[in-house]
Specification:
The protein starts with a helix and ends with a strand. It has one domain (about 45-250): Vaccinia Virus protein VP39 (Rossmann fold), CATH 3.40.50. The chain has helices spanning about 5-10, 35-40, 45-55, 75-80, 95-105, 165-170, 185-190, 195-200, 210-220; strands at about 15-20, 30, 65, 85-90, 115, 120, 125-130, 140, 155-160, 175-180, 205, 225-230, 245-250. Helices cover about 30% and strands about 20% of the residues. The protein is α/β, with parallel strands linked by helices. Strands 5-4-3-10-11-13-12 form a seven-stranded mixed sheet. A four-stranded mixed sheet has the order 6-9-7-8. A two-stranded antiparallel sheet has the order 1-2.
Length: about 250
């Protein structure tokens, strides 16, 4: 299915309401298309199980951050589980994905979820999201280390923010859980929230996409006493951690 057809379906029948059938976000309101694996409950089952196990199954009142929220599947699951006394912050720089994320937040009436149309990073300012002409994919990303932008990458200007600033000005509570899935930019995002992490020592799930991201995340979290275990191990190169999901615990 080409990008034009996906966009058309996504903006018409794709907006029809449904509910998530099973899994960590079971019962939440959702939209029909695309990414039907979200509402079918079949998306990333191992990561879903890890979220269910947080806090021995009870995270009511927690503060949770979702970096690279896409349509807000995990943000929605976390908002259901923390309840109105908790707080969820979802960060998504892709404007097409953010629009659907915000729709899902409103559909569920999650006043305790805050959605931010920006990328968590080590600098507050502006950057470029490389889109390659298709905002409907999950692979739009900030530049990988050493990657340049070109006309073919069709970069889109976006805002970036050090998340420590949100805590320091009282806009967000320090997190007790963080999910990071930001296409190779996780070490930069973590650098920008290092003070909050050092202070509150949250559990963290990271999806790795590049070797600099792996090295950078380990370089920040291991000196803080974090240990890690795989949730989903990489199939091709398990020793590299790239394309795997890992739980970091203090």
């Amino acid at each position: 299915m080409n990008a034009g057809v996906r966009r058309l379906l996504g903006s018409t029948v794709g907006l029809l309401p449904t509910r998530i059938r099973r899994g960590v976000a079971k019962g939440a309101r959702w939209t029909l298309f695309p990414w039907s694996s979200y509402w079918r409950g079949s998306y990333e089952p191992a990561v879903q199980r890890a979220l269910c196990d947080l806090g021995q199954g009870d995270i009511r009142g927690w503060s949770c951050w979702d970096l690279g929220a896409h349509f807000g599947f995990y943000s929605t699951a976390l908002a259901l589980r923390v309840g109105p006394t908790g707080q969820v912050a979802a960060f998504e720089p892709n404007p097409l994905s953010f629009e659907r994320l915000e729709r899902h937040r409103r559909m569920n009436g999650f006043d305790w979820m805050k959605a931010y149309p920006l990328a968590a990073s080590d600098q507050t300012g502006f950057s470029e999201l490389l889109t390659y002409g298709d905002l409907a994919t999950t692979s739009t990303h900030l530049k990988y280390d050493g990657e340049g932008s070109s006309e073919s990458s069709m970069p889109l200007a976006i805002r970036t923010l050090r998340l420590d600033e949100l805590v320091e000005r009282g806009e967000l509570r320090p997190p007790q859980f963080v999910k990071i899935d930001v296409e190779g930019h996780g070490h930069r995002a973590l650098e920008g929230m290092k003070r909050a992490v050092a202070g509150s020592r949250p559990s963290i799930i990271v999806a790795f996409h590049s070797q600099p991201e792996v090295s950078g995340v380990l370089g920040i979290l291991e000196p803080m006493g974090y240990h890690w275990k795989p949730i989903v191990e990489p199939l091709s190169r398990p020793e590299s951690m790239i394309d795997g999901d890992y739980l970091f615990s203090p």
